[in-house]
């Protein structure tokens, strides 16, 4: 956990446009292994269809990593490899590493640059998906998976498409980034329950590096204890910004999800209108929902305005 309140000077710098936009994003499509992916510019994606890297009769999984991460980061390799191992889906990585890197700006300004770039990347990714749709991609077979700022890009993309009359089938948002996406001064276009037909959100560090509010059609709160959440195996305390110890609970979201890709039904969850109700009933439920890749298409959170309602995962899982 950490205090992500930014100094007033930083907000001023953001407003006057201190960040530099780099137009380098691409799509990497994998055909059977992590070796030799087909790489196309984000703004010219049609060869993925024309050269059959994306087979339109299959579900297509798009993975999007977060701030200062890239295709060689642990979460990217783990999730992409797990989907490739399945062998029955198209696997594509949205590579926005140049736009996501902190370069030599330092952590705070680097994050501001990356967070502001998410909006443009989301708009362009939406345009790329429309281009692929014109080539035969079916939006009912599209599943976006994003972690941290990558989850917010998934939300922006879905929202942009919905504004144009199109709806993606599913967006899985793994601990969506909180800084600059929550609070009074923040981007309002991000993860929300309307960015896809099904939006499953996993909150492992709510109020820390991740958002603390409900944002999906089904929200999961692994090991939530009311307020500060520390995942099993993670240290508690205050740590330097973006330190390995401080990021531990935030990272847990993609680790949990990756485990479910080739091992379904790992994380049984109980539904409740809020945390207090779940606590009073000791997590008992008449129906079990499983968090992760194989969530039921009909899974929905309770109809409540409470930020900590929806699905509560009760299974402790040391990392």
Task: Give the helix/strand layout.
Elements: H1 8-15, E1 26-30, E2 38-41, H2 47-50, E3 60-64, H3 74-86, E4 90-95, H4 97-100, H5 107-134, E5 142-147, H6 149-163, E6 170-174, E7 198-202, E8 218-220, H7 244-261, E9 267-272, H8 275-280, E10 289-291, E11 310-313
Parallel strand pairs: 3-4, 3-5, 5-6, 6-7, 7-8
Antiparallel strand pairs: 1-2, 1-4, 9-10, 9-11
Helix pairs in contact: 3-7, 5-6
Salient structural properties:
disordered N terminus, 319 residues, disordered C terminus, single chain
Structure characterization notes:
The protein is α/β, with parallel strands linked by helices and 319 residues long. Helices cover 30% and strands 16% of the residues. Strand 5, helix 6 (149-163) and strand 6 form a beta-alpha-beta unit. Residues 1-16 and 304-319 have low confidence and may be disordered.
Q: Low-confidence parts, pLDDT < 50 over ≥5 residues?
A: 1-16, 304-319
Number of strands: 11
Q: Tell me the strand order in the biggest sheet.
A: 2-1-4-3-5-6-7-8
Order of helices and strands: HEEHEHEHHEHEEEHEHEE
Task: Write a short abstract of this structure.
With 319 residues, this protein is of the alpha/beta class. The chain contains 8 helices and 11 strands. Helix 3 packs parallel to helix 7 and helix 5 crosses helix 6.
